[in-house]
Every structure is written in C-alpha cells, then in structure tokens.
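Protein Record: Sequence and Backbone Structure Tokens
======================================================
Tokens: labelled as protein backbone structure tokens, with as many entries as the chain has residues.
Question of interest: how does this chain fold, as expressed in backbone structure tokens?

___
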Amino acid sequence: MIDLNLFVLKFSQIIWSWPLIITFIVIGVLTTVMLYFIQFRYFLASWKFALFPSKEKTEGELSPFQALINAIGVSTGNGSIAGIATAIAVGGPGAAFWILIAGIFSLAIRFAEVYLATSIQDINPLTKKMGGGPMVYMEKIPGGKVLTYLFTIFTVIFGIIAGSSMQSNSISSGIFRTWQINPYIIAIVLFVFITYVLIGGAKRIITISDKLVPFKVSVFIISSLIVLLYNYANLLPAIKLMFVSAFNPEAIGGAALGFTIQQAISKGFSHLLTANEAGLGTVPILFGASGSKNPMKDSIMSMLSAFISTYLVCFVVALCIVSSGVWNSGEASTALTISAFETVFGSYGGWIVTFCSVSFGLGVLVSYAFVTLETWLYVTKGRFTYLFIALYCIATFFGAIAKVDLVWNLINIINAAMLLINLYAILYFLPFIRKGVAKYIKQNEQ
C-alpha cells in the first residue's frame, strides 16, 4: 500500500530540486542583466522611497507604502524562523551562503513582478477603480486564460492553507511547547481574532497589519542583534564556515555528515523562496491593489520587502544558528533557532523565539487574509465573500489543533506551481519591463 505522506514528500523534493532552482537562477540572471542590474542601481533609492513615502493619493484600496508593509508581512513568517533553521540543519552552514545568492536574484524578480502589477492595470469590476496584479498581466501572455485561473486557484488554496491554517499551527505548536497552553484554547482565540479582522473588511485588515508588521520585525531584529553581539567573537569564523562549506563541505567533515553542495544549494534556495515569496506572485497582488500611478518608484520600493525578508530576517536566523555553534546539534526547525537563542538568554530563549514566532504568524495570518480575499473575489467574480471568511476562519481554527506534515508537503508543490507560472509571465514580459526601466534611467540619470 502506498504511503501517501511519503509519496507527496518525495514528489515535493523532486519539484524543489535542480530543475526549479536552475530555472529561478536563469530567469534571475536574465532579469538582473536585462534590467540594468536594477537591485544594485536603485538599492539606496528603495530605502529612500520607503522611509519618505509619497503623499500622493492613489485610487486603490491601499497606498503603495501600505502595500510594502503588507509585503513584508507576508514574506516574514514562520518560514523564516523554522524553514531557514531546517535549511541549515539539512544543508549545513553552506545553505546560508546560497540564501545570500538567491536573495540577489530575488530582489530583481520582486521588482519585475511588481512592475508588471503596477503598470499593466485594468478596471476592477468590484471597486470600479484601476488595479493590477498577476490576474491582470497573466491574461496577456500565451495560454494566459488557463494559466490565470490555475494561478488564482492555487493562490486561494495556498492562502487558506498556508496563510491561515499553517500559521495558526505554528503559533499553536510554539505556544504549547513553551507554555503548555491547550491548543483548543489557542484555536478559539485565533478564530475569534481573525473573524474580527475579516468582518471589518479590507480597511480593518490593512489597519491591523500596519501595526503588526513593524512590531514583529523590530522585536525579532533587536533580539537577534543581542544574540549576534553576544557571539561577536564567532561571527567572522561563522561567515568563513558558511563560505567554505558552500563549496567544500568535506572541509568541515560534511561528507561524513551527509552534507553535499547539492543539499546546501537546494535547501538554501528552496527555503528562502518559500520564506520571502519572491516570484510567487503574492506581493504583486498587494501592490496591484494600490492602483499605483508610479510603477517604477513603487517597484523599486518593493525590492525592500525581499531584502528585509532575505537579509535582515532569514540570513540573520542562519547567522545566529551558525555563530552560536548549535547548527550541528541534531535539532531542526524552530527548535534549532530556540537552541541558538538559549546560548544567550538561557531558558528564556524559547520564550523569545516563541514570541517572535507568534508575532510572525499573526502578521502573515492577517496580511494573507487580504491577498487571498483579493484572489478569491477575482475567481468568484466578487461573490461569496462570507463563504471565504468562513473558510479562512475555520482553517485557522483547525490548523491550530491539527497535525499537518502531509499538508505542508502539498503546499510546497502548490508553491512551486505558482512560482513557475509567474516566472513564465516575467520572462515573457522582460522586454516590456526593460523598456520601462531604460526610460526611467534616461529621465533620472542624465
């Protein structure tokens, strides 16, 4: 008899292996070169546009700055705390190096997908305002009608399961492990919370997310900096170990431990893309909903969401784990991150990581409510809003009390499908994006 969980796991591992990684790298290199090394050329500008957002009113449901905040919200979840720790546990310290490399391409791809969402727009039949997103620009590519509906269906499934039930599961398991609070109590609290958020509509979702995201990122960065400062003497050796093991795992006994360069690359790329969501098409939904009139400016600013998720969260998690010396302790996932924090905070390390995990999970839970609702309304042509609210809230409740290994592996497959469809659209539109970037460079650099 076939073990369904094992079958899905193996299929997920095959999907997230060399073909997908090479596809991402090739399109990442092409995007970087054809867009005039956009992530380096306008890196400082992305900070400027975020720190000094435009006061100009837009016609969408949220401002470009709110789109950025929510983009950071969806791309800094428990995939950062648990997923990156798993990448280090399985792929060794070398996985951290490949996280850095994947991050470079992630910025260019994030720019490209948001540029498409903010420059190719149409009248939203629900709001009667201009808007964009993958659902709009995918319709204009060969095979677009079919791919658009496949993408939206995958996104709805991904949002309801990964954005709702998976985040509540991470929140619940973390709280139970640290404070032994009954999962059913947590499930009820989360159910009431997300019901309150969704019944308030898009405006309430955005308002709560605007408060949650800066808080959760600030708490994480401050506590992580304390860990890094405590282990300051190990930082340079840790970084050297990451570089050495990225290309020569045998130098650290990697062959005996089963670490290979392939594992380091595979785990580094796959877990980062799952965490920062570059290329998945979810962040363009947020920026597309802003009804932006400044595609270049907003797309440059959007790169900051991928940078924060990759370098200030994911790589910092990896650096904490390696510099604290716990990376080969045999632990994985959130437990490995907790071990790193315990080297500094003792038993309170688990409290801090759990608190970060809960705040990360709540942030994704809320931000994904908006992303998934927008996609749901597109698929259903604006109907059955209360059915969506019921599904999302029920998924939150049952996610908190369920065992979800099988579902996680299914989500990884859906993730890969979303990525491939969106990368195809980016590749198709690269000449169009290049023309827009060239025009902007000519106007602003001469």
About this structure: The mean pLDDT is 85. The first strand starts at residue 121 and ends at 123.
